[in-house]
Amino acid sequence: MDLIIIFGILLALLFNFANGLNDAANSIATIIATKALTPLQAVLLAGVFNLLGPLLFTTAIAATIGRGIVAPAFLTPPLILTAMIGAVLWVLATSYLGIPVSSSHALIGGVLGAGIAAAGMGAVFWPSVDLLKQVVAYGLAGAIPGAIIAALLVYWTSEFRPWNLLLGGIIGGTISIPLAIITGFLEISGILAVVIFIVISPVLGFISAFLLAAIVLHIFRNHHPKRLTAHFRNLQIFSGSLQAAGHGGNDAQNAMGIITAMLLAGGLISEFAVPLWVILASSLAISLGTFLGGWRVIDKMANRITKIRPYQGFCASTAAGGVLSLMNIFGIPVSTTHAITGAIMGVGATRGYSAVKWGVVREIVIAWVLTMPATAVVAGICVAIAQVLTGGAL
Predict the structure, then answer these.
(1) Distance between CA 116 and CA 28 in Å, rounded?
(2) What is the distance between the alpha carbons of residues 216 and 36, in angstroms, rounded to a whole number?
(3) What is the pLDDT of residues 301-327, one digit of tens each?
(4) Mean of the pLDDT values across residues 64-77?
(5) In this predicted model, what pLDDT tens digit does every residue of 99-130 receive, in sequence order?
(6) Between the chain's N and C termini, which has fewer beta carbons within 10 Å?
(7) Largest Cα–Cα distance of the chain, in whole Å?
(8) pTM metric for this prediction
(9) Where are the alpha helices (DSSP H) in 34-162?
(10) How would you label 41-75 residue by residue, b for 16+ Cβ within 10 Å and e otherwise?
(11) Which helix (DSSP H) or strand (DSSP E) does residue 312 occupy?
């Protein structure tokens, strides 16, 4: 096996390790915040289910990462290597600073930047104009009635504010596009799916967690608080496991896609099919990162967005786990960070607007927006440097 492919595989596994280091907070923040488990127990739980996740779901996301963003003909082993350098640097830096970012989007940004720098804009699978029109049409089909319903509700219950129309429109569009995908009316993949779900995944997490928390509050409104706390602390172990499995099933496939693409580019396999050893190695790497834990990220997710009670922790983890599981089935590489952050905001919002620390949320969202461009730029610079050093033989 070529040395550059071996180094690339090791770097991909390092990326998954960094992924687990940063995204450990996704699976265990709510469990730690409500003291359902000790930090060590929570990290162990997340590590185990991160390992099981990729074995429970398909490898469709690995295919999206490995051959759905940049044309496979341009993905040479050295190019893939430079793409991962940008992603690894960004994830490690944000983990050190305690900022929860999307490792999936970091890797996709790296692949984009490296592909464009080496082969131009034509190397990327850009969506067609007709497909963009379809997405807009389905988005409007949900956004318009969503805005109208929001306006009517606010008019009947409180003073009308224009931003309620925007909120209702976002919620309506967020629901209509995934429904169109699930029912087969809309088929999107590659970079378009990634960009759209940067918005959709946190909003889906917010909506589902808010509704679930509201239902739980109504059902258990007459229960004694201490008894309720004890019950939901136990249930959080189940919901945290679901979320960790969803996280592993989605994010562990980042390295799977890259390693398989390298093996294919190096002529070691004849078709894009993820080998079992790649699945196991990628899962172990992300589980090890999760086990060691990104404690600064965990603190921000668990304590600084909103105060989380056990029933809210259960609702947030269940909602985020459900969103991740659904995306795993359809092969869409979404951000687990986005999904759980949106869910935590959703359960916090059931106690009112002021219950969520929106300044912290703003900081996190800025990091989300910067992730793909930042890693694309770093990867592009790495490609340029490599071309200079090798005389353009990258």
Answers:
(1) 37
(2) 18
(3) 555 556 677 787 788 888 888 887 777
(4) 77
(5) 766 777 788 888 888 888 888 888 888 888 99
(6) N
(7) 73
(8) 0.75
(9) 39-56, 60-67, 77-97, 103-119, 129-157
(10) ebbbbbbbbbbbbbeebebbbbbbbbbbbbeeebb
(11) helix 310-330
Lowest mean pLDDT among 61-70, 163-172, 182-191, 273-282: 61-70
Residues 6+ apart with CB under 8 A from 6: none
Dist. CA 16–CA 3, nearest whole Å: 20
Which residue shows structure tokens 């997405």? 135
| 272-297: average pLDDT | 76
The rounded distance, in Å, linking the Cα atoms of 163 and 302 is 29
Reported as type and span, the H/E element at residue 207 is: helix 190-219
Q: What pLDDT, in 10s, does the model give residues 345-366?
A: 888 777 766 666 666 667 777 7
Q: Mean pLDDT, to the nearest integer, of 261-275? A: 82
Distance in angstroms (rounded) separating the CA atoms of residues 132 and 193: 11
H or E element in which residue 347 lies = helix 336-349
Q: How far, in Å, CA of 101 to CA of 93, rounded?
A: 10
Distance (Å, whole) CA 377 – CA 298: 28
Find, among 35, 108, 46, the residue nearest to 254 by Cα: 108
Distance CA 286, CA 21 (A): 8
| Residue in the structure block whose two tokens are 């056990």 | 310
Q: Say whether pLDDT at 137 is over 90.
A: yes
Supply the mean pLDDT for the chain: 78
pLDDT of residue 295: 59
CB neighbours of residue 38 within 10 Å: 11
User: φ, ψ for residue 314 (rounded to 5)?
Assistant: -60, -45
pLDDT tens sequence across 164-212: 777 788 888 888 988 888 788 888 877 887 788 777 888 888 888 888 8
Q: Which amino acid is at 83?
A: A
The DSSP string of 2-55 is -HHHHHHHHHHHHHHHHHHHHHHHHHHHHHHHTTSS-HHHHHHHHHHHHHHHHH
- What distance in Å separates the CA atoms of residue 164 and residue 148, rounded to the nearest whole number? 10
Instruction: Collect all residues with Cβ–Cβ distance below 8 Å to 96 and sequence separation of at least 6.
Output: 296
Domain boundaries, the chain: 3-127+188-390, 135-187
**Contact between residue 104 and residue 28 where contact means Cβ atoms under 8 Å apart:** no
